[in-house]
Specification:
The chain is an all-beta fold. The chain contains no helices and eleven strands.
Length: 117
């Protein structure tokens, strides 16, 4: 399955942004999905994940309470709603997916999010 992330941009601190991740195949419905990000000069960081049916989510401590991951399997699309953004959220955001029992084997191309102070 191929993943296409979109929705990045420039936003002021305290603002909100919603990222989308469109999958290319219906098989995406059976994959756990998530988001990573990578800031300049830093390692790639796990942000959030969501189970196949959307019933279970996990978040990194750095974004819990500010970010919400969701998915619409009818549209084979995942979302990341980001609120109360801070400059430290500036990074390239990647959507990812994995088959059951596997690692994050599917990566989108990334979308840039820049938060100005």
């Amino acid at each position: 399955v191929q993943l296409q992330a979109s929705g990045g941009g420039l936003v002021q601190a305290g603002g909100s942004l919603r990222l989308s991740c469109a999958a290319s195949a219906r098989a995406f419905r059976y994959y756990t999905a998530g988001w990573f990000r990578q800031a300049p000069g830093k390692e790639r960081e796990f942000i959030a994940s969501i189970s196949q049916n959307g019933g279970s989510t996990t978040y990194a401590d750095s974004v819990r309470g500010r970010f919400t991951v969701s998915r619409d399997n009818a549209k084979i699309t995942m979302y990341l709603q980001m609120s109360s953004l801070i400059p430290e959220d500036t990074a390239v955001y990647y959507c990812v997916a994995q088959r059951a029992g596997s690692n994050w084997g599917y990566w989108g191309q990334g979308t840039q999010v820049t938060v100005s102070s």
